[in-house]
């Protein structure tokens, strides 16, 4: 793909997105004040055709600065939405227009990139439809899984990390070595499990589900009772179809899966927190022919998707052979008593940029010296990991190693960071900077 430049064409689609504080009701009798787009949670679905020019007019009706980031879309740098890196944050009462060409096709989402605002609800799906899909389907549903924080997000206080990696106190959770925010449950399309959405299907249909992990601190495992899932895309990019009974994804990852509706009844779509103990997020798949009844729960996973099962349909240009530049980065907890997460011992923004040159094949090798997973996300570029093309990849805990390769084809200053929002806010980020 050619380098992106600022789009000056007339937009095909113009969408207003006003960020404001509203009361949301994820279940009857449960409400909280959240920060949302267009008064909706999750925010409105933006759906455009591949190659269309999308123009989004952000109006900030919050009492705080904000931005929008187009997670996964390799947009031109000035509209990437990272405060103090690609733009000045948008002040209360101000507006900012993001215009870019929506390509390549895929399942994306948009969210605030300021502080911990993502965990307040400033998120929504962005679907860029293929002109020529590599798989067939008759119907589709977007499935956003998320962790539900009633109240204001905040970093754990200094010293709360403990000295020896004990499990966190706040909110329980059992994520050894980290502190889980005090979540009030897990959401699927903005609903708590006692208030599930129903996905209607007709026997014989092929149903495409677009799963987005919009959580701030949750790794989800997803299953659908009574059905195999044929995974067709990861992070929006098409893969050779692979059939599984479950997959695991970290914050910021997406999977598309096609399900053949060949097993009439009422079935649960379930998303379990692997690092929390809240009741699973869920929805219900209900066949038209079904007489209702309580939905069946999924069986334990026996055929879980692994990264090595993913084979991209297309290849990424500019990353064959040996890299022109390699970074070896250690992901770890900060050494101090304060809640800090570091890349090579540095906590952003007090961190050196990773300097690259246009046209280079860049490799980033990561080793995770902490006990918790880090879903690492690169802005502005897709990368190759194994045989897949992705924009977010889980680096497992306990010395897990992952290498990503990308082609420096989109000049600018780009954030590379952990998509656990609390790790990001506590320093686990670097700027990847193009230099002459
Ligand atoms: Cu992390």
Automatic annotation (TrEMBL):
PROSITE patterns: MULTICOPPER_OXIDASE1, MULTICOPPER_OXIDASE2. InterPro entries: Cu-oxidase-like_N, Cu-oxidase_2nd, Cu-oxidase_C, Cu-oxidase_fam, Cu_oxidase_CS, Cu_oxidase_Cu_BS, Cupredoxin, CuRO_3_CopA. Keywords: Copper, Metal-binding, Oxidoreductase. The keyword Oxidoreductase applies. Gene3D superfamilies: Cupredoxins - blue copper proteins. The keyword Iron-sulfur does not apply. Residues 20-131, 180-288, 328-433 form the Plastocyanin-like domain. Pfam families: Cu-oxidase, Cu-oxidase_2, Cu-oxidase_3. GO terms for molecular function: copper ion binding; oxidoreductase activity. This is Multicopper oxidase type 3. It comes from Halorubrum aidingense JCM 13560.
């Amino acid at each position: 793909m050619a380098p992106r430049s600022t789009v000056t064409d007339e937009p095909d689609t113009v969408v207003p997105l006003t960020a404001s504080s509203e009361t949301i009701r994820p279940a009857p009798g449960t409400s909280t004040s959240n920060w949302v787009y267009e008064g909706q949670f999750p925010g409105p679905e933006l759906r455009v055709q591949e190659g269309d020019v999308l123009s989004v007019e952000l109006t900030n009706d919050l009492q705080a600065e904000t931005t929008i980031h187009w997670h996964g879309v390799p947009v031109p740098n000035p509209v990437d939405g990272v405060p103090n890196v690609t733009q000045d944050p948008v002040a209360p009462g101000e507006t900012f227009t993001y215009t870019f060409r929506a390509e390549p096709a895929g399942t994306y989402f948009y969210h605030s990139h300021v502080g911990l605002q993502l965990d307040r609800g400033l998120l929504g799906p962005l679907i860029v439809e293929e002109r020529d899909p590599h798989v067939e389907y008759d119907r589709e549903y977007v499935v956003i899984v998320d962790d539900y924080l009633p109240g204001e997000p905040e970093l754990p206080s200094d010293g709360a990390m403990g000295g020896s990696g004990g499990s966190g106190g706040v909110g329980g959770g059992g994520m050894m070595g980290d502190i889980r925010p005090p979540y009030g449950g897990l959401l699927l399309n903005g609903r708590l499990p006692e208030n599930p959405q129903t996905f209607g299907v007709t026997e014989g249909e092929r149903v495409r589900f677009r799963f987005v992990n919009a959580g701030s601190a949750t790794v989800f495992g997803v299953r659908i009772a009574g059905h195999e899932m044929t995974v067709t895309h990861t992070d929006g990019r098409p893969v050779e179809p692979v059939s599984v009974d479950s997959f695991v994804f970290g914050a910021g990852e997406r999977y598309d899966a096609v399900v053949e509706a060949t097993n009439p009844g009422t079935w649960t779509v379930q998303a379990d927190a692997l690092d929390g103990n809240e009741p699973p997020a869920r929805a219900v798949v209900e066949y038209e022919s079904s007489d209702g009844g309580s939905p069946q729960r999924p069986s334990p996973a026996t055929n879980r998707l692994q990264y090595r099962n993913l084979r991209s349909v297309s290849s990424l240009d500019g990353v064959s052979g040996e890299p022109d530049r390699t970074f070896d980065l250690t992901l770890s907890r900060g050494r101090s008593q304060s809640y800090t997460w570091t890349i090579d011992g540095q906590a952003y923004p007090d961190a050196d940029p990773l300097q690259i040159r246009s046209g280079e094949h860049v490799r980033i090798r990561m080793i995770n010296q902490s006990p918790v997973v880090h879903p690492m996300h690169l802005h502005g570029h897709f990368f190759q990991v194994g045989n897949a093309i992705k924009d977010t990849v889980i680096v497992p805990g306990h010395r897990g190693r992952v290498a990503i390769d990308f082609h420096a084809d989109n000049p600018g200053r780009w954030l590379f960071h952990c998509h656990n929002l609390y790790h990001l806010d506590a320093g686990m980020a670097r700027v990847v900077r193009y230099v002459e």
